[in-house]
Amino acid sequence: MPNLTLVVLAAGIGSRYGGLKQIDPVGPYGELIIDYSVYDALRAGFERVVFVINEKIEQPFRERVGRTIEKQCDTTYVFQRLDDIPLGFQVPEGRTKPWGTGHATLAGRDVVKAPFAVINADDFYGRSPYQALYDHLQRTQSGDGQPDYCMVGYRLENTLTEHGHVSRGICQVNRDGFLVEIHERTRVQRFGPAVKYAAEGDAWIEIPPGSLASLNIWGFRPAILAQLADHFRRFLVENSDNLAKAEFYLPEVVGSLIREGQARVRQALTSGRWFGVTYQQDQPRVKEAIQELIRQGVYPEELWG
Fold first, then answer.
1. Inter-CA distances, 127 with 190, 226, 273, Å
2. Could you give the residue ranges of the DSSP H alpha helices within 158-267?
């Protein structure tokens, strides 16, 4: 099997965070969340990393991230470009932000040829999810021709920040452990003991306790790239009246593939907690969590030695 690849979505500028959160240090020797993610993935068996970045941040990203990661494994960079759209379409006037996580994953189509995992650059997932994805992607696909993918799910309550709202894919899984439904909720927030999301019209709807959430950590076969290309064209047609703001979300594409019988997605549930930096105020909590893991011996004091 070709070398399994880790695709890191790092093109977001971080409007809620107020800066380039991808390159803010969280470890004692200046390590980034990306460093810990790549470290965990390499230890699980992944051998190659593809960073999907915005060309506006290429220089600081490569100086801060690439100089370390490039010494550890085969490293490739691709740009998520606003004008990377099919022939016959054009970028609408007023559109400035990227097209979303589905489009960011699609940006790697020319360099990703092997089974691969997808993660967010600013989410700390813990070690076990990478092993689960690696084990799934190493297996031989079933002979019915339907691609079999994998998603690592977290209990929603373990994925929230105290400092505002977050985006989460809210999932339903059947008794056999396969994903049945997933819907991207872009404003999920804690209200005391309850967790709610903002629907259209800003009405807040409660999410059942114990719900499963996707944090954009997936295991895919290369077939997903052609599927994303087809669905992106569909997205552009269906949202023609709102292309200045609409986003092409990876979880929504996966949900459509499941409903249409075009893919199976097994979920690998983790008991770990999410740590991320959606907001500047999240930084101290992430640093404390890293320090505790170092004390427990999960990571060395100086990650790359």
1. 26, 30, 11
2. 223-238, 250-259
Structure tokens at 222: 């290369």
The answer to whether 219 touches 117, Cβ cutoff 8 Å, is yes
Residue 197 in tokens: 């999301």
At 128, list the tokens.
């076990």
Q: Which of 24, 16, 27 is nearest to 303 (CA)?
A: 27
Question: What element of type H or E holds 150?
Answer: strand 148-155
Tell me, what's the pLDDT at 166?
85
Over residues 125-176, the pLDDT tens digits come to 988 899 999 999 998 776 677 899 999 988 888 888 777 788 888 999 999 9
Residue with tokens 């200046």: 30
Paired residues of 246 in beta bridges:
none
% residues pLDDT > 70 (the chain)? 91
